From TrEMBL, chain A:
Keywords: Isopeptide bond, Ubl conjugation, Ubl conjugation pathway. Belongs to the cullin family. It comes from Spirodela intermedia. InterPro entries: Cullin, Cullin-like_AB, Cullin_homology, Cullin_homology_sf, Cullin_N, Cullin_neddylation_domain, Cullin_repeat-like_dom_sf, WH-like_DNA-bd_sf. One of its GO terms (molecular function) is ubiquitin protein ligase binding. SMART domains: CULLIN, Cullin_Nedd8. SUPFAM superfamilies: Cullin homology domain (SSF75632), Cullin repeat-like (SSF74788), Winged helix' DNA-binding domain (SSF46785). Gene3D superfamilies: Cullin Repeats, Cullin, Chain C, Domain 2, Winged helix-like DNA-binding domain superfamily/Winged helix DNA-binding domain. It comes from the Eukaryota. GO terms for biological process: ubiquitin-dependent protein catabolic process. Residues 374-603 form the Cullin family profile domain. This is Cullin family profile domain-containing protein. PANTHER family: CULLIN.
Automatic annotation (TrEMBL), chain B:
GO terms for cellular component: ubiquitin ligase complex. This is Defective in cullin neddylation protein. It comes from the Eukaryota. GO terms for biological process: protein neddylation. PROSITE patterns: DCUN1 (PS51229). GO terms for molecular function: cullin family protein binding; ubiquitin conjugating enzyme binding; ubiquitin-like protein binding. Residues 32-223 form the DCUN1 domain. Neddylation of cullins play an essential role in the regulation of SCF-type complexes activity.
Length: 734, 229
C-alpha cells in the first residue's frame, strides 16, 4: 500500500504570452456573422473561405465555441424568419414554388456555412453534444418555416389539393411535388409522416370511400373492378413519381380497403354482373381482375372461392338431380365433363391455377357427383358409348384425353365399387358382341383404373380379355379339327368360353336351341371337354348373336343379324307359317321377359319388322299370333335387328345391382375391421370407424351404421368383444 | 356358446367354524345336511333320467309357493348355476342348496327371499342378468332370442327396477321390424343403457360411443316421439 513518491515531470509550455485582444471574440464573430448574411444574400463570391474557416477555427480554439454556435443560431433564425415572410407573401400557386426556391437557397447556404464552420462541427459540436450545423439548419427550417403557423396548414392543403387535382384528371407539376415531398422527408421521417402522409392517407380514404360509393351504385361489377384497378395503378404511379417509396404499401392498402375490402360482398354478389355472372359467362378477363384485386385484401380470395364453390355446388346439384338429364346418361356425363373443363379453364386462365381453387373445384365435384347414386352407372355408360361409337376414327391422343377426363370423374366417385360393377357388365356386353371400337383404348382405360385402384380392382376385367383371346385359339383348334364335310354342311358356330366368376352374368337356364344347331354344339362340347379335363360347359344363350340368311317373298334376300334368342324364334318359322305367343314360349323356353322383348324387336320396330303380329300393337300379349312378314323390305342386304331394351338398367335390375354391391361390401368391411383390430388389439369405436373408412375409401365410402353392424356381427361371432370397463373400446379376440 | 367365462362362486358362502373342537360335530352336521338335500332332490327328480325335469320343477314351485314364471325361480336357477332350462341336475342341486343352507322346503322358501336380496346387489345383478339370457338359449348353437321372449324376459328382470325404460323399450322392440332376434351383445347393452342413460330425456346418450345399433335406433325413435309431441 505504499506508493512510491513520484517525481512529476512536467514539460512547461513555451512561455510566450499571446496577446489576446479582449474584443477578439466579438470582432471575429462580427466577421463571420457578416459572412453568413452575405451568403444568404447571394453575395458569397466575395468571401474568402480560407479566412472565414480560420476565424471560426480560432474562435473555437479560444473557447468561444459557445458564442459562435449561439450566434449562428440567432443569425440563421433571423434569416429564416425573413424567408418565412416572403414565402407567406407568395400568392396562390406561387406558394409552393417560392417554398421550393427558398428551400433550395437555404440548402445551398447551409452547405457553405457548414464548410466554414467545419472545425466547430468536428470538435465543439461533438464535445458538447450539440446538433451539427447541417441538422441544425434543417431543424431551424422545420421550426420556422414548415411549422410556422401560416405555412404549415397552407402547405398541407396545397399538396393535397394538387393531388386531388391530379386524381380528377388535371396535370400538375410533378417535379415541384417531388421536391416538396423530398424536402419533408429530408426534414425527417416524422415530418413527412405527420405533416403530409397521415393527412394524405386520411384524405385519400375519404376520397376513395366517396368514389367507391358513387361507382358501386351505377357500375357493373366488371366496370367497377376496372376502375379500382386503374386507381390502384395510378396511386402506385404517384408514389414512384413524387412520394416516398415507403408510402406505397400504405396508400395501396387504403385504396384496397376503400375500393375492395369494404365492398367485397356487394361486388361478388352484384346482380347480373357479380362473380356468378362472370363464371356463367366465362368472363376470363374480369375474373382475372377480380382475382388479382381480391388477393390483395384479407379474406378476398376466400370470398371468391366460397361464392364459386357454392355456385358450383348449386349448379352441379341441379345438374345431377334434374330428372330430364337422367334420361340420357351420355349427355349427363358430357355435361359434367363440360362443367369440369369450363372451371379448369377459368381457374387456369383467371385464377392463376391457384391450388386452393383447384381443391375447391375437386371438393365441389365430389360433393355433387355423389348426390346422384346413379353417377357410377352413368359414367360407365358414358364410357360404353364412347367405346361403342364415340371413339371411332378418333386419334390416339384424343382417345387418351377422353379417357383421362373420365378418370377424373371416376376419382370423384365415392362408390367406386359400384362403378366397377357396372363397368364389368358393360365391358362384358361390348366384348361378347364385339362392339368395342378399339381394344387398345379398352386396355388403356383398364391400365388407368389399375394405377388408380390397384390390381385387385381390375383383375377380373383383365380375365375377361384373356378369356376372349383363349376362345379365339380354341375356335381355331376346333374348326381345324372338323372334317371338310362338317364345315360345308349346316350352320357354323363361334363359341366364347367364359370363366365363371370373371364375368358378371348370372348363370341362366339355356333356351331350347333349334334342332339344326344341336349337332354342331355337341361337337364343340365334345371337342372342348376332350381337350380340357375336369371342366363344365353350360350355354349362355342369352348372350350370343346369330347371322341368318332369309329369303322373303318376291325373292327379297337378306342377311339378318339377330340375337341368339331371336334366332331361335325365327328358326321356328321354317316349319310354320303362324305361331301363337304361347307356342313360341313353349318351343323355345325363353324366359318370358326376354321373349317379349325379342318379339317386340322382331315385329314392332318399323323397318326391321321381319315378323308380323296380330293384332298390330306395340306390346306383346299372351294371345298374339305371329307371321313372317312377307312384305319386309330393306334397301340393305344385311339388316341388324336390335333388341328393344332400355340401355340403362331397369328399376329391378338397378336394385339388384345395388343389393349385390351392398353384399359385396360386407366382407370387405369385416376384413378391414379384423385387419385393424388384429394389429391394434384394443381400439375405440370412433377410431375403428375412421380407420375402416380410410382403408376402404379408395373403393367406396362405407356407411358408419353399416360398419357398426359389421362390428356387432363380429362381436356375435366372437372375433371381437366389448371392453368390460370402457364401453368405447373393442378388444380383438385371437 | 359365448366365450364369456362364467364367474364362479359369487355367492357368499359361510365358512365352517374353524375351531377343532367343533370340527367333527360340524362335519357330521354337514353330512346330515347333504343327506337331506339329496333326499329333497330325489323327491322331485325323475327316476328314469336322474334329474329334476319340468314336472319336478312345477311341483317344487307349488311346494315353495311361487309361480314357475316367477323371477325367484330364475334366481334359484342362477344360484344353482343350472345349465339347461327346466332341468336341475343333482350336482347343481347340491351346490346350490348347500350355498343356500337349505335342506328342507321350509328353509328353501325363506332362502328364496334372501336370495332375491343377494341377486339385487350390484355385484351380482349383471351376472344374473347375463345368466338369464343364456338360460333362455335352449337350442344347441342358439345365440339369440326372439323379440317376443326378449320383451318378456326384460319385463321380468328389469321391469321392476326400470319400469319407464322397459316400457318404452319393449314398445319399441315390438314396433320395429329391423330386428327379429336379440343377441347377447344387445341384451347386455339394454342393461347398460338402463343403468347409465338419463330417462326419458336420453340427453347423455352419445351414438358415437360403441352402443349396439339397436339402441341407436331406439334413442332415435324416442327422440322422434318426443319431438312429435
Amino acid at each position: 500500500m505504499n506508493t512510491p513518491k513520484k517525481r512529476n515531470f512536467k514539460i512547461e509550455a513555451f512561455k510566450h504570452r499571446v496577446e489576446v485582444d479582449p474584443k477578439y471574440a466579438e470582432k471575429t464573430w462580427k466577421v463571420l456573422e457578416h459572412a453568413i448574411h452575405e451568403i444568404y444574400n447571394h453575395n458569397a463570391s466575395g468571401l474568402s473561405f480560407e479566412e472565414l474557416y480560420r476565424n471560426a477555427y480560432n474562435m473555437v480554439l479560444h473557447k468561444f465555441g459557445d458564442k459562435l454556435y449561439s450566434g449562428l443560431i440567432a443569425t440563421m433564425t433571423l434569416h429564416l424568419k425573413e424567408i418565412s415572410k416572403s414565402i407567406e407573401a407568395a400568392q396562390g400557386g406561387l406558394f409552393l414554388e417560392e417554398l421550393n426556391r427558398k428551400w433550395g437557397e437555404h440548402n445551398k447556404a447551409l452547405q457553405m456555412i457548414r464548410d466554414i464552420l467545419m472545425y466547430m462541427d468536428r470538435t465543439y459540436v461533438s464535445n458538447n453534444n450539440k446538433t451539427p450545423v447541417h441538422e441544425l439548419g434543417l431543424s431551424l427550417w422545420r421550426e420556422h418555416i414548415i411549422h410556422s403557423e401560416n405555412i404549415r396548414s397552407r402547405l398541407l392543403n396545397m399538396l393535397l389539393e394538387q393531388i386531388y387535382r391530379e386524381r380528377t384528371g388535371e396535370v400538375i407539376d410533378r417535379g415541384l411535388m417531388r421536391n416538396i415531398t423530398k424536402m419533408l422527408s429530408d426534414l425527417g421521417p416524422s415530418v413527412y409522416q405527420e405533416d403530409f402522409e397521415k393527412p394524405f392517407l386520411e384524405v385519400s380514404a375519404s376520397f376513395y370511400s366517396g368514389e367507391s360509393q358513387q361507382f358501386i351504385e351505377c357500375c357493373s361489377c366488371g366496370e367497377y373492378l376496372k376502375k379500382a384497378e386503374r386507381w390502384l395503378n395510378e396511386e402506385m404511379e404517384r408514389v414512384t413519381h413524387y412520394l416516398d417509396p415507403k408510402s406505397e404499401p400504405k396508400i395501396t392498402s387504403v385504396v384496397e380497403r376503400e375500393m375492395i375490402a369494404n365492398h367485397m360482398q356487394r361486388l361478388v354478389h352484384m346482380e347480373n354482373s357479380g362473380l356468378v355472372d362472370m363464371l356463367v359467362n366465362d368472363r376470363y378477363e374480369d375474373l382475372g381482375r377480380m382475382y388479382s384485386l381480391f388477393r390483395r385484401v384479407p379474406d378476398g380470395l376466400s370470398t371468391i372461392r366460397d361464392v364459386m364453390t357454392s355456385h358450383l355446388r348449386e349448379k352441379g346439384k341441379q345438374l345431377v338431380t334434374d330428372p330430364e338429364r337422367l334420361r340420357d346418361p351420355v349427355d349427363f356425363v358430357q355435361h359434367l365433363l363440360d362443367e369440369k373443363d369450363k372451371y379448369d379453364k377459368i381457374i387456369g386462365s383467371s385464377f392463376n391455377n391457384d391450388k386452393t381453387f383447384l381443391n375447391a373445384l375437386t371438393s365441389s365435384f365430389e360433393y355433387f357427383i355423389n348426390l346422384n347414386g346413379r353417377a357410377p352407372e352413368f359414367i360407365s355408360l358414358y364410357v360404353d358409348d364412347k367405346f361403342r361409337r364415340g371413339l371411332r376414327g378418333v386419334s390416339e391422343e384424343d382417345v387418351e384425353a377422353v379417357l383421362d377426363k373420365v378418370m377424373t370423374l371416376f376419382r370423384y366417385l365415392q362408390e367406386k365399387d359400384v362403378f366397377e360393377k357396372y363397368y364389368k357388365q358393360h365391358l362384358a356386353k361390348r366384348l361378347l358382341y364385339g362392339k368395342t371400337v378399339s381394344d387398345d383404348a379398352e386396355r388403356s382405360l383398364i391400365v388407368k383404373l389399375k394405377t388408380e385402384c390397384g390390381y385387385q380392382f381390375t383383375s377380373k376385367l383383365e380375365g375377361m380379355f384373356t378369356d376372349l383371346k383363349t376362345s379365339q385359339d380354341t375356335m381355331q383348334g376346333f374348326s381345324a379339327g372338323q372334317g371338310p364335310e362338317a364345315a360345308g354342311e349346316g350352320p357354323a358356330i363361334v363359341v366364347q368360353v367364359l370363366t365363371t366368376g370373371s364375368w358378371p352374368m348370372q348363370p341362366s337356364a339355356a333356351c331350347n336351341l333349334p334342332a339344326e344347331l344341336l349337332p354342331v354344339c355337341e361337337r364343340f362340347r365334345a371337342y372342348y371337354l376332350g381337350t380340357h379335363t375336369g371342366r363344365r360347359l353350360s350355354w349362355q344363350t342369352n348372350m350370343g348373336t346369330a347371322d341368318l340368311r332369309v329369303a322373303f317373298a318376291r325373292n327379297q334376300r337378306h342377311e339378318l343379324n339377330v340375337s341368339t334368342h331371336q334366332m331361335c324364334i325365327l328358326m321356328l318359322f321354317n316349319s310354320a307359317d303362324r305361331l301363337g305367343y304361347r307356342e313360341i314360349e313353349q318351343a323355345t323356353e325363353i324366359p318370358a321377359a326376354d321373349l317379349r322383348r325379342c318379339l317386340q324387336s322382331l315385329a314392332c320396330v318399323k323397318g326391321k319388322n321381319v315378323l308380323r303380329k296380330e293384332p298390330m300393337s306395340k306390346d306383346v300379349g299372351d294371345d298374339d299370333a305371329f307371321f313372317v312378314n312377307d312384305a319386309f323390305a330393306s334397301k340393305y342386304y344385311k339388316v341388324k335387328i336390335g333388341t328393344v331394351a332400355a340401355q340403362k338398367d331397369s328399376e329391378p335390375e338397378k336394385q339388384e345391382t345395388r343389393q349385390r354391391v351392398e353384399e359385396d361390401r360386407k366382407p370387405q368391411i369385416e376384413a378391414a375391421i379384423v385387419r385393424i383390430m388384429k394389429s391394434r388389439r384394443v381400439l375405440d369405436h370412433n377410431n375403428v370407424v375412421a380407420e375402416v373408412t380410410r382403408q376402404l375409401q379408395s373403393r367406396f365410402l362405407p356407411n358408419p351404421v353399416v360398419i357398426k353392424k359389421r362390428i356387432e356381427s363380429l362381436i356375435e361371432r366372437e372375433f371381437l368383444e366389448r371392453d368390460k370397463a370402457d364401453r368405447k373400446l373393442y378388444r380383438y379376440l385371437a | 356358446m359365448p366365450r364369456t367365462s362364467r364367474r364362479t362362486g359369487s355367492a357368499a358362502v359361510n365358512s365352517p367354524a374353524a375351531s377343532d373342537i367343533f370340527r367333527s360335530a360340524t362335519n357330521r352336521a354337514i353330512s346330515k345336511e347333504l343327506e337331506r338335500i339329496d333326499v329333497l332332490f330325489h323327491s322331485y327328480s325323475d327316476s328314469s333320467s336322474g334329474v329334476i325335469g319340468p314336472e319336478g320343477i312345477e311341483s317344487l314351485c307349488s311346494d315353495v309357493g311361487v309361480e314357475h314364471t316367477d323371477i325367484r325361480m330364475l334366481m334359484l336357477a342362477w344360484k344353482l348355476r343350472a345349465e339347461r332350462q327346466g332341468y336341475f341336475t343333482l350336482e347343481e342341486w347340491r351346490g346350490g342348496l348347500k350355498a343356500l343352507r337349505s335342506d328342507s322346503i321350509g328353509k328353501l322358501k325363506k332362502a328364496l327371499t334372501e336370495l332375491e336380496k343377494e341377486v339385487r346387489s350390484p355385484e351380482n345383478f349383471s351376472d344374473f342378468y347375463s345368466y338369464a339370457f343364456r338360460y333362455c338359449l335352449t337350442e344347441d348353437k342358439q345365440r339369440s332370442i326372439d323379440i317376443e321372449s326378449t320383451c318378456e324376459l326384460l319385463d321380468l328382470i328389469l321391469g321392476p327396477i326400470y319400469r319407464p325404460q322397459i316400457g318404452k323399450l319393449t314398445e319399441f322392440l315390438k314396433g320395429q321390424s329391423d330386428y327379429k332376434v336379440i343377441n347377447m351383445d344387445q341384451w347386455m347393452g339394454f342393461l347398460r343403457f338402463c343403468k347409465e342413460i338419463n330417462f326419458p330425456s336420453v340427453d347423455n346418450y352419445d351414438p358415437a360411443l360403441a352402443w349396439p345399433l339397436i339402441l341407436d335406433n331406439f334413442v332415435e325413435w324416442m327422440q322422434q316421439q318426443q319431438h312429435g309431441r
